[in-house]
Design a protein that fits this description.
Blueprint: E1 2-6, H1 11-22, E2 26-30, H2 44-48, E3 53-56, H3 65-86, E4 90-96, H4 106-120, E5 125-130, H5 137-143, E6 145-146, E7 149-152, E8 156-157, H6 162-173, E9 180-185, E10 190-191, H7 192-202, E11 208-211, E12 216-217, E13 220-221, E14 234-235, H8 240-258, H9 266-293, H10 296-305, E15 311-319, E16 326-335, E17 344-345, E18 348-356, E19 359-363, E20 369-371, E21 376-379, E22 385-390, E23 397-406, E24 413-414
Parallel strand pairs: 1-2, 1-3, 3-4, 4-5, 5-9, 7-11, 9-14
Antiparallel strand pairs: 6-7, 8-10, 12-13, 15-16, 16-23, 17-24, 18-21, 18-23, 19-20, 19-22
Helix pairs in contact: 1-6, 3-4
């Protein structure tokens, strides 16, 4: 089958693309960076020609009430019109469990409007409503934080691992349309405050979770089952506790691996530490400069005005005299929307600090991770960098990377 994935370069979309390609399907990972834009309509008809299925996992670049409603209504109308023109037989859209129970949220109202357009269209469809992702629990905690206190109710919360959601989307894409709504969630429904508390404890976060039944979520006071499926649902296989244990263990291993080796001389270790401190200084300066420059208009046009290739700017370099033959190099990397790197290696110790946006990183044999501002990533001299991309198809991303490498050696070596 030919299947078009709108939002095919994002967190869920990229996973769905890989799963369907592994099954032998012809898959188009559609995004503005690939010349396929559901808002302007650019490239839609060409991309959908010959397709049996379209999967929509796009997300709005702005969650402001008016902007997010315009995004989902405009995008969905354009896609449905192109599907009608090209004879697509199945429209699959990912929505949110409980979206119709949170009317105070402009984002949820926009998702309800999107669902209505799909239901009113003549195109056969399946709407898959999913709970929140494991990967977003940290952001949810941030949104509920005041000072060192996180206020959340004890309502049931049943998040799902992004891999499990992607697997369900892929299955639905090749199945017959149900012309209705299917729900999916993780295997465990637990009190909201307890789950977030466990997340913070596992990350040694000093914030305290306080149970507050009046605490709002998306501007609404929740009922006990507002955030969990209403009936039978497709359940993921990965338990939150297992995912949390695995991801925190990987983080600890990465941090341990990134520490200077015990046999490095005191002077050399000091030199490396000073070099890495430059990340913090550069990060703060560049982040503040980016914030001063950032405007809503720029984010809206980013997808069509920026180049696809990453922009690399050298910030600093220095010979490491206590490590003969080694040098330190600091670079600023700017990913335009939808940008991605080829498979490569650096033959160096690489230390990444994210300044703006979200980036997806993975080395061969390791777990794919999505990093947001303030988060870090390490790769060693033997690592093959198999995934390096902007997680967004509509917003740019920036990060600083410091390499400790052989003097004069190339920074990037393409590989397989």
């Amino acid at each position: 089958m030919k299947i078009v994935i709108l939002g095919g370069t994002g967190l869920i979309g990229s996973k769905v693309v890989n799963l369907l390609r592994a099954k032998g399907h012809e898959v188009v990972a559609a995004s503005p960076s690939q010349g396929i834009n559901s808002i302007t309509g650019e490239g839609l008809t060409e991309a959908l020609t010959g397709a049996q299925v379209v999967v929509d996992v796009t997300n709005a670049p702005s969650w402001e009430d008016k902007a997010v409603l315009e995004f989902f209504e405009t995008s969905t109308r354009n896609v449905l019109a192109a599907e009608t023109k090209t004879g697509v037989g199945h429209h699959v859209a990912v929505s949110i469990v409980g979206t119709d129970q949170l009317p105070a949220s402009g984002y949820m109202r926009a998702k309800v409007a999107q669902e209505k357009l799909i239901k009113d269209s003549p195109i056969p469809y399946t709407i898959l409503r999913a709970t929140q992702f494991f990967e977003f629990v940290g952001r949810i905690a941030d949104g509920a934080t005041s000072g060192q206190t996180v206020r959340l109710p004890s309502v049931l919360f049943q998040p799902i691992f992004s891999d499990d959601l992607a697997a369900n989307v892929a299955k639905i894409a090749v199945a017959k349309p149900v012309n209705g709504v299917i729900e999916t969630a993780g295997p465990d429904a637990v009190p909201f405050d307890e789950l977030v508390g466990k997340y913070l404890a596992a990350h040694h976060d000093p914030r305290t979770v306080v149970r507050d039944e009046q605490a709002q979520y998306f501007g609404t006071i929740l009922e006990k089952r507002s955030l969990v499926p209403s009936g039978n649902a497709l359940l993921g296989s990965c338990h939150f506790a297992d995912w949390l244990s695995r991801t925190t263990s990987q983080k600890a291993a990465t941090e341990k691996q990134s520490a200077p080796a015990p046999n490095v001389s005191g002077k050399a270790a000091k030199g490396i530490a000073l070099l890495l401190c430059g990340i913090v200084f550069a990060a703060v300066s560049l982040r503040d400069a980016a914030a001063a420059d950032s405007t809503t208009d720029k984010s809206k046009v980013a997808a069509t005005t920026e180049p696809k290739e990453a922009k690399v700017t050298q910030l600093f370099s220095k010979d490491l005299t206590d490590l003969p033959g080694k040098e330190g190099l600091m670079l600023l990397i700017e990913y335009p929307p939808g940008s991605s790197d080829p498979v490569h290696r650096h033959n160096a110790h690489g230390f990444i600090y994210v300044l703006e946006g979200s980036i997806v990183m993975q080395v061969r044999g390791g777990k794919e991770v999505t990093l947001t501002p303030g988060q870090t990533f390490y790769e060693g001299p033997e690592d093959v960098h198999v995934v390096g991309r902007n997680a967004s198809e509509t917003k740019p991303a920036k990060f600083v990377v410091v390499f400790v490498k052989d003097k004069g050696a190339p920074v990037l070596v393409p590989t397989k």
